[in-house]
Amino acid sequence: MEIDEYRTYCLSKAQTTESFPFDEDVLVFKVAGKMYALASLKKWEAGEHRINLKCNPDEAIQLREKYPDEVFPGYHMDKKHWNTVVVNGPNLSLQQIQNFIDQSYDLVVSKLPKKKREEIQLK
């Protein structure tokens, strides 16, 4: 997955916005103002194709155990709720990475107020 594919995939999700809230390096994707994915553009350009994604804490541990070379506790994030995923690793397919993005997005949407969730699901 290249950065433009990652960006396009995230932006295809309902009510997703992109921004640089921290600095000009960290590209953040949000739904309803809540982060679900981010990446360092400088690191990406340096060959470190990594993204941070929100994850259910129990599943986060399972993924880290299943993919020890591609999934790590979230870099500069709450290690319980975030994973860093190496998107160009040999053990993860594009479909798996997209699934991780979907799960992150869905997890954030599931925590929104009911009215906001319904709004997103209608679009």
UniProtKB/TrEMBL annotation:
TM region(s), chain numbering: none
Top-level taxon: Bacteria
InterPro entries, alphabetized: YjbR, YjbR-like_sf, YjbR/MT2646/Rv2570-like
Protein name: DNA-binding protein, MmcQ/YjbR family
Pfam families: YjbR
